[in-house]
Write a structure and sequence with these properties.
By secondary structure, the chain is of the alpha+beta class. The chain has 2 domains: 75 residues, Winged helix-like DNA-binding domain superfamily/Winged helix DNA-binding domain (Arc Repressor Mutant, subunit A, Orthogonal Bundle); 131 residues, 2-Layer Sandwich (Endonuclease, Chain A), CATH 3.30.870. It contains 11 helices and 10 strands. α1 crosses α2 and α2 crosses α4. The N and C termini lie far apart (71 Å).
Amino acid sequence: MMIKQELVKKIKEYFNLNIYETKVWLALLSQGVASAGEIAELSGVPRSRTYDVLESLEKRGFAIIKVGKPVKYMAVKPTTVIEKLKTDTLRRAKENLELLSNLKETREYAELQELYNNGIEPIKHQNLSGAIKGKTNVFNHLRELLEGAKKEVIICTTAEEVNEKSRLFSSLFSNLNRKKVNTKIALSGDEKEIKKINNKFKINAQKIDINAKFFIVDKEQVLFTLSNSNEDELALWINSNFFGNSLAYMFEQAWKNK
């Protein structure tokens, strides 16, 4: 049986199988029912390994042992395998979420915090800066910064970005409002869209012609987006009173003169 290597590679990735499991499963699918010896011959997997691989596939729900002698295996329909994998993935995700949600109550978490605090304490304040890459990492850091705001937040971004990440921004705007943090929001883009955003989120964003995305928290921390690409998004986090105050001053001058 000739199976394209590209198919083997893709199936291996999609179903999280090793190379032997992939070849054996594909061989079994092509036959429907087969013995270990037949599968070894069809797949090119060594016979001594085929038994272990078939046992592994049977435990994972890719194959079924046929009752009777000699022992043969039946292929499980791909649709059934996919549904099982979806169920298993959701179950594991739920378990992991519960574990992470309860983590803060553990002694181990307290020790992690102590290690971080002890490590960060001697570092100079102005050295706490860095580059953050990836859409998820950038927005996780943004959320952390804005949730930690005490007095003032300046948000300069695009109407398009607010619409694309409406769930995130809705939560952030609500949290800032609840904490009574002085918030200035400037959006570039279509004026009609900005009015819709103001009505939707109950905010008072102003239109501003600045082609930039940055967030200033308490004039101390700045998150400056350097890339427009979603997946390869790159942002610079700067923890500096001097830079924060300077950028905030320039923003406010542009705000007054718009």
